[in-house]
Amino acid sequence: MRAILRAVLFDLDGTLIHSLPDLVAAVNRMLAAEGRPALESEAIKAMVGDGADALVSRAFAASGGLPGPEVGPYLDRFMADYEPRSAETTRPWPGVVETLEELRRRGLALAVCTNKPRAATHEVLGALGLAEYFHVVVASDDAPAIKPDPAHVRVILERLGVSADAAVMVGDSINDILSARRAGVRSVALSFGYAHGPVEALGADRVIHRFDQLPDALADLYP
Questions:
Q1: Starting at the edge strand that comes first in sequence, how are the strands of the sheet with 186-190 ordered?
Q2: Whose CA, among 58, 86, 96, 145, lies 20 to 30 Å from 51?
Q3: Shortest CA distance to 193 belongs to which of 13, 47, 9, 42?
Q4: What CATH number is given for 20-85 in this structure?
Q5: CA atoms lying within 13 Å on the CB side of residue 168
Q6: Active site located where (predicted)?
Q7: Domain range list for the chain
């Protein structure tokens, strides 16, 4: 029997939202507090996607090395500064709200699957008026392992009560596509996010160039 699409899972940073300017500002405030030079936006963009601890570690590595023996204290300071300011300039990509409305009208269950920490995730979703669209939000604190580990995707499927063949993952990075593939979930990649290299090389089932192309891509995957 042919599977019917029941759920769509979304990455957050670079997929639903353009959050890079706020991340760049927070990273450079952290570096400035340690007397380090600021990093360029493109350099920080290449560090995004593997969780906040990886971002902090990479930023210090690119500016002379971690000041202390462990990343923990610097991660805590970074998050304390970033979380309340995480939506100062962050905005949904064009077409996101309208597309989420359309998918909701179609009766699909919607979820967020992000390597961003929980508090910052809920802060951004609430500030941008996006929280109401999602049945489940699973951040880095909420899964036994983060993307590209398939456990992150599987936690969401279990909470939604949806089988892997009835779900699609939408993302902008190799972590999104790998986690979906390893969980047996189809995927759609965005060409305008924060991918570290050619989006076409990620191996997604479909690639879209505008967010409002997503409904057609989903209909193509589930005719």
A1: 136-138, 109-113, 7-10, 167-171, 186-190, 206-208
A2: 96
A3: 13
A4: 1.10.150
A5: 23
A6: 11 (nucleophile)
A7: 7-18+90-221, 20-85
- State pLDDT tens for residues 66-81: 999 999 999 999 999 9
> Does residue 11 have a known ligand-binding role?
yes
SS3 222: coil
Is 50 among the annotated ligand-binding positions? no
HSE toward the beta carbon, residue 219, CA cutoff 13 A: 8
The tokens of 124 are what? 């951004």
Tell me: domain 7-18+90-221, CATH 3.40.50.1000, correct?
A: yes
In this predicted structure, the answer to whether residue 2 has a pLDDT above a threshold of 90 is no
142 is in an annotated binding site: no
Mean pLDDT to the nearest integer, 1-27: 95
φ/ψ of 150, rounded to 5, equals -65, -15
